[in-house]
User: Which sequence fits this backbone?
């Protein structure tokens, strides 16, 4: 009998040193030699929703804080709600078991549509600068902020979570099919700065600062 | 190290770290911090190569790469600028353009034949008689260019690119550039500072004279550099050469990597709101006979050889200079033991009296109003003739070093390539910035300034002006800065353009192209009377140095010779790249970004041969048999499994979604039902079919549709474009990558799938054209469509991508007893062709409309209120009998022509073959073609032209479609 | 030439991120009674202004919005608050 497994499209060249099974996913908690940063963490197993409605504001609630301005992001250790335009927002969950998606036609489950990565730690913008002309760490960016634009030549949705302090970082998604080449491009660009894959534990430590 | 002075505070070398190069198979010891040229110079090399035309010996002249004198072949790369390239251990260096060696060049006799090669020689000698031309061309090609690139050469090293955005980009890391960067950064702006040398400091860096506070300039420069480097708002990119400046604040450059960097060269594309050009000056070559003889060099070159690299440039030096920097160099050289035989100064006034006093106190002979007239020496400099401007009071002095420098030339290339302009300024004798490009500021010596305080103040001002460009209100600061600059010394009086009474036969105005004063006169006498024309006729300024040497001299000499005003001439235009750059650097990393399906790795393991198809990598074959016979037959007789994940998939919802669908799809979208799929198509405005797919209703105002693989990326764009004026309330979600698609096809397909799904999947429960949700395995929700693209019983299973591999495994397990097998894109192509199903882009090109491919039945003509894209054009096209039509072909002979072969008659092309294959399902070679209307009737015979047919056209019969299972009984079974 | 465009959602961006959507010609005409020539003019004929024109752009690599902007076709610079000729 075939065991049902959910597979992330992300492949690193090291295997995790600790992982756990969660909703058929093998979630990496830690990688060997994670180093001093910057880090990249695979978040493909995190639930994502697309919300589109002519009256988007009416869908906002305490549990779903949809920001008012385009490009604004409501970032918490539980989720990131990214206001994309007048009618659309993206919801990225960080918790292990987010509640069910509201049964309203405005919502679409998009967990499977994208690859979801976090890139954080020291010199992270020196890495991103090699991959995109978007000035993610630029003075005009007010984290948390959403930037929709090309990253390694692929359209991405990028949340600049923090740009200064000890732990600057971004979260981003792009079409799932690009996962392998995207990770390769990012790892390649980050090599000179010591970029290493990190597990979910380190990501959570970072996230809990918000 | 024996040949170095190691106790100078200005040194940039580390004599304790040796670097070894090989030149002529002889090791040369340099040290860390050396360039290739300085390492060789320290080792005694004086002749670095031979000149382009006359094979004259050439040596170190400027140290900043303004001419090709020191271009060498380094590690098999020709034309490397050895005076800029840092020396690295193990480099192998060769001289260029020699037959023999640089010292003993067998072609040096050509120098005596210059009388036979006047300006424009090639233009008016080599074309008559015509028969001579092929011969002449061969010889000219042999002589053209300096370096030689081996055809087997492969560029190694890592090339890279970055795209930084910034508010202010400062070009030039000298005193004014550093000040500009600081004052902009202190306004809270982000600044990128570019410097061509490996360190900041500009012309402060090697100067020992003291400012008003008794601080030597090099120290003043270092303090500034420290401040700049420590400022968090300033990003310093040293060893970075400018490539170009463009409108809208685009600046391109490239950076040479040091041994610690991860790249050999990195291309840099900067977007700035404001650009400060603080490029300073280069020196203006002094014109006299043999003015490029090895041993002749510019003042900065000699000065930096000593102060930066610790090398004594010669034993006995004569100076012929026109500015104080030359006097400073003479003093420093003297103090380190060089015998200064004489200093001829073009000027008779305006010298810094302190410097004159210092010369006097050292008993150095100083002769104002004099210049060099001729350099002596067969290969190397042995002496120089000095004299006054009119040629009187000549005397010859023996020497091995002649420091010659007529004045300063502002580096305005970054302005003029971006449509800025320069104008002649009589006070400085230079072309100074006139009209500046938008949001561009200038600072420092480019403005003619010479006083350190003034240079820095102009930088400070430029930084504030740049801040203003960025939208900062700095009016008060600006006024203060302007005031401060106004109180400081203005531009320095420069020397006039002078040239002694020489024949000009060996006075070179351009070293790269061996253009002499005499050549310029010849060009002007022929009527080429402006510098841009002279440049083209004599090729002056077209070499690797891009006019660095002739920059000011060419227009000024032109004006002088013609007796016209200096204001009437301009230096010739520069063009990017301002600094020679590798094509590999331009190419950058060029990381290929392609999509992979969730089954990618498994299909690879299964022996899939992958091809890049659009943005995807797809398994095209599963065996070396490119006819895919086994894959095809297994689908026809048994069951095959295919990864169709690349199919475009979209959800569209919202109150106006039907209106949007009716706009772009040709069918009546109101008829789309839940539980059923409808095949339909999209056209462009010309009625040409651009996409086909299926659509189903998921709920009220909620639809799911698929597109072809190639169109998925443009679908959202297309639908939004064609509804852009109406402000409709509908929403799309691109789910292309969210679902893997398994295509299970063949007569045994149902037997396989029914083993794994949770509900009845009989022909009654899920008939052809039906769609239904199922659960597979441990509650994996999938939805299954009954389609017939390959012409068999077929299930298209849409699986959430992360579950794809597991569901695939379940099906393989269930299908094992039937011998389930992979089939790839090519097998699918054959299967659907046999069934007469089209693939857009294969059975269509941009002129093929919906009717041509017999899909007119999809078109609902009666919805004018929808304003369907393409419907008006289709109505017109209906009247046209001459259009190409899709037909079936059956070859009369056993040869398979290639896809795309044209169908011809005696006089013209009548159509082309779209897809044609040897069929295993029906007998013979069959295919699809687009042919002109009159040929499209079954029974016609067409002639196919193939490249290798040697005039024997291949014959094929036009036959009815489809070839396979015309009733469709198999796919509906 | 470096083209910068201002996306109404994302702000100023590099021109490479966008796809050109043609001159602004107004909404699609009504189909009934439309002559083929008039239709062809709407679809294919352009004014090709040497100067400022209003035109459509798609933020392909970004937020995916179609918007209009004014651009001087002679300088390739976006003109804010332009008088469209």
Assistant:
């Amino acid at each position: 009998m075939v065991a049902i497994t959910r597979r992330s499209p992300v492949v690193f060249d090291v295997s995790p040193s600790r992982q756990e099974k969660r909703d058929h996913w093998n979630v990496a908690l830690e990688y060997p030699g994670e180093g001093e940063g910057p880090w990249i963490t695979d978040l493909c197993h995190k639930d994502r929703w697309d919300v589109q409605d002519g009256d988007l504001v009416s869908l906002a609630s305490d549990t779903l804080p949809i920001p008012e301005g385009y490009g604004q992001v409501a970032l918490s250790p539980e989720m990131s709600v990214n206001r994309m335009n007048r009618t659309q927002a993206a919801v990225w969950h960080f918790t292990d078991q987010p509640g069910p998606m509201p049964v309203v036609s405005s919502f679409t489950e998009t967990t499977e549509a994208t690859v979801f990565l976090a890139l954080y730690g020291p010199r992270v913008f020196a890495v991103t600068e090699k991959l995109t002309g978007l000035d993610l760490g630029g003075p005009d960016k007010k984290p948390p902020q959403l930037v929709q634009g090309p990253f390694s030549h692929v359209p991405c949705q990028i949340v600049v979570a923090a740009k200064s302090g000890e732990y600057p970082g971004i979260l981003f998604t792009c079409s799932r099919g690009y996962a392998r080449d995207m990770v390769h491009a990012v790892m390649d660009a980050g090599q000179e700065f010591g970029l290493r894959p990190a597990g979910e534990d380190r990501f959570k430590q970072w996230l809990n600062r918000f | 190290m024996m040949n170095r002075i190691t106790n100078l505070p200005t040194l940039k070398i580390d004599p304790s770290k040796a670097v070894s190069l090989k030149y002529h198979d002889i090791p040369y010891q340099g040290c860390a911090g050396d360039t290739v040229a300085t390492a060789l110079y320290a080792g005694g090399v004086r002749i670095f190569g031979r000149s382009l035309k006359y094979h004259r010996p050439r040596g170190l002249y400027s140290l900043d790469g303004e001419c090709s004198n020191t271009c060498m072949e380094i590690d098999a790369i020709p034309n490397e600028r050895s005076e800029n390239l840092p020396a690295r251990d193990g480099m192998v260096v060769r001289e260029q353009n020699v037959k023999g060696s640089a010292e003993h060049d067998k072609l040096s006799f050509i120098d005596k034949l210059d009388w036979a090669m006047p300006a424009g020689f090639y233009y008016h000698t080599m074309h008559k008689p015509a028969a001579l031309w092929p011969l002449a061309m061969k010889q000219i090609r042999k002589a053209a260019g300096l370096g030689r690139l081996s055809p087997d050469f492969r560029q190694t090293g890592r090339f890279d690119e970055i795209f930084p955005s910034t508010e202010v980009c400062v070009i030039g890391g000298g005193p004014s550039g550093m000040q500009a960067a600081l004052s902009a950064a202190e306004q809270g702006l982000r600044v990128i500072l570019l410097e061509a040398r490996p360190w900041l400091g500009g012309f402060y860096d090697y100067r020992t004279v003291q400012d008003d506070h008794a601080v030597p300039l090099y120290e003043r420069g270092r303090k500034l550099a420290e401040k700049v480097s420590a400022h968090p708002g300033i990003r310093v990119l040293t060893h970075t050469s400018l490539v170009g400046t463009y409108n809208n604040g685009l600046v391109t450059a490239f950076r040479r990597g040091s041994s610690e960097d991860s790249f050999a060269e990195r291309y840099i594309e900067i977007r700035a709101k404001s650009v400060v050009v603080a490029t300073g000056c280069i020196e203006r070559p002094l014109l006299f006979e043999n003015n490029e003889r090895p041993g002749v060099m510019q003042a900065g070159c000699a000065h930096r050889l000593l102060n930066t690299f610790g090398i004594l440039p010669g034993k006995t030096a004569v100076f012929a200079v026109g500015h104080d920097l030359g006097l400073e160099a003479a003093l420093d050289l003297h103090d380190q033991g060089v015998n200064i035989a004489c200093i001829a100064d073009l000027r008779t006034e305006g010298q810094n009296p302190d410097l004159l006093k210092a010369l006097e106190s050292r008993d150095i002979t100083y002769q104002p109003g004099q210049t060099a007239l001729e350099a002596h020496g067969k290969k190397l400099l042995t002496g120089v003739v000095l004299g006054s401007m009119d040629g009187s009071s000549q005397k010859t002095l023996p020497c091995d070093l002649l420091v010659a420098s007529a004045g300063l030339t502002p580096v305005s290339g970054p302005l003029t390539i971006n449509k800025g302009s320069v104008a002649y300024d009589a006070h400085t004798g230079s072309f100074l910035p006139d009209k500046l490009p938008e949001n561009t500021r200038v600072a420092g010596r480019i403005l003619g300034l010479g006083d350190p305080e003034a240079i820095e103040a102009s930088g400070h001002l430029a930084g504030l002006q740049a801040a203003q460009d960025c939208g900062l209100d700095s009016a008060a600061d600006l006024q203060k800065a302007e005031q401060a600059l106004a109180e400081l010394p203005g531009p320095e009086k420069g020397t006039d353009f002078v040239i002694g009474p020489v024949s000009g036969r060996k006075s070179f105005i351009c070293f790269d192209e061996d253009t002499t004063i005499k050549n310029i006169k010849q060009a002007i006498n022929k009527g080429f009377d402006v510098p841009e024309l002279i440049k083209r006729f004599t090729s002056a300024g077209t070499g690797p140095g891009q006019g660095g040497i002739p920059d000011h001299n060419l227009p000024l000499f032109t004006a002088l010779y013609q007796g016209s005003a200096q204001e009437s001439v301009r230096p010739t235009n520069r063009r990017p790249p301002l600094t020679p750059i590798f094509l590999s650097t331009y190419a950058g990393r060029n990381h290929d970004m392609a999509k992979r399906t969730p089954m990618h790795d498994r299909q690879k393991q299964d022996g899939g041969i992958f091809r890049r198809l659009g943005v995807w990598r797809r398994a095209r074959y599963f065996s070396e048999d490119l006819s895919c016979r086994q894959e095809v037959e297994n689908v026809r007789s048994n069951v095959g499994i295919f990864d169709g994940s690349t199919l475009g998939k979209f959800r569209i919802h919202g109150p106006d979604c039907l209106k949007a669908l009716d706009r772009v799809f040709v069918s009546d979208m109101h008829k789309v039902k839940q539980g059923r799929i409808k095949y339909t198509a999209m056209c462009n405005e010309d009625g040409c079919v651009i996409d086909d797919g299926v659509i189903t209703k998921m709920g009220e105002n909620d639809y799911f549709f698929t597109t072809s693989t190639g169109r998925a990326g443009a679908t959202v764009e297309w639908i939004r474009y064609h509804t852009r004026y109406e402000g409709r309330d509908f929403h799309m979600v691109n789910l292309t990558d969210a679902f893997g698609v398994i295509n299970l096809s063949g007569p045994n397909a149902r037997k396989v799938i029914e083993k794994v799904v949770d509900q009845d999947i009989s022909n009654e429960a899920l008939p052809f054209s039906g769609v239904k949700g199922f659960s597979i395995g441990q509650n994996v929700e999938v939805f299954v469509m009954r389609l017939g693209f390959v012409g068999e019983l077929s299930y298209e299973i849409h699986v959430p991508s992360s579950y794809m591999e597991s569901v695939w495994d379940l099906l393989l397990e269930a299908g094992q007893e039937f011998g389930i097998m992979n089939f790839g894109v090519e097998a699918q192509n054959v299967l659907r062709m046999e069934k007469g199903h089209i693939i857009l882009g294969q059975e269509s090109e941009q002129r093929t409309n919906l009717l041509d491919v017999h899909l007119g039945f999809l078109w609902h003509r009666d919805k004018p209120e929808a304003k369907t894209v393409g419907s008006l054009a289709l109505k017109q096209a209906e009247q046209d009998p001459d259009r190409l039509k899709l037909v079936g072909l059956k070859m009369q002979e056993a040869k398979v022509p290639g896809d795309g072969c044209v169908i011809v008659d005696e006089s013209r092309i009548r159509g082309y073959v779209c897809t044609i294959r040897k069929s295993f399902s029906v007998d013979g070679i069959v295919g699809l073609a687009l042919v002109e209307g009159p040929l499209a009737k079954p029974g016609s015979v067409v002639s196919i032209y193939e490249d290798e047919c040697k005039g024997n056209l291949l014959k094929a019969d036009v036959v009815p479609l489809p070839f396979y299972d015309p009733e469709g009984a198999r796919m509906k079974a | 030439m470096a083209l910068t465009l201002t996306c109404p959602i994302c702000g100023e961006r590099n021109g490479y991120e966008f796809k050109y959507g043609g001159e602004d010609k107004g909404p699609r005409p009504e189909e009934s009674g439309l002559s083929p020539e008039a239709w062809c003019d709407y679809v294919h004929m352009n004014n090709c202004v040497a100067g400022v024109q209003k035109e459509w752009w798609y933020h392909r690599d970004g937020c995916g919005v179609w918007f209009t902007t004014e651009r001087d076709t002679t300088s390739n610079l976006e003109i804010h608050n332009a008088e469209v000729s």
In short: Chain A touches chain B through 53 residues (CB under 8 Å).
